[in-house]
Known about the structure:
- This protein is mainly α.
- The chain is built from seven helices and no strands.
- Helix 3 (33-43) crosses helix 4 (50-57) and helix 5 packs across helix 6.
- GO terms for molecular function: monooxygenase activity; oxidoreductase activity, acting on paired donors, with incorporation or reduction of molecular oxygen.
Amino acid sequence: xxxxxxxxxxxxxxxxxxxxxxxxxxxxxxxxxxxxxxxxxxxxxxxxxxxxxxxxxxxxxxxxxxxxxxxxxxxxxxxxxxxxxxxxxxxxxxxxxxxxxxxxxxxxxxxxxxxxxxxxxxxxxxxxxxxxxxxxx
Length: 137
């Protein structure tokens, strides 16, 4: 529910899961508008319920994206395999639990990726704006 609420910038936990959400509630969601339109289309109703959001979006479910699991070395193996097979040029991480998922990844998997030369262990000076050559407004 947290991940779903994050995408739509709306607290879904205040509603029963099978209660249709009003037009007013849907209009108050300030998150991804295209994602909202997709949920409405896939659910087949102009006033989807929280359950419709979960089912239609897949957000926060194991079917949303491929899941790499195992020890830090096993997760790094899977990421390395995808990277070297040109299946991707990077990864977007989604928390599997809160709090602590991102900290676990940084503290356990990143060092393994660094040992393999797949993740930087040093950063260039300056801000992203500076490194891209943009002038400060």
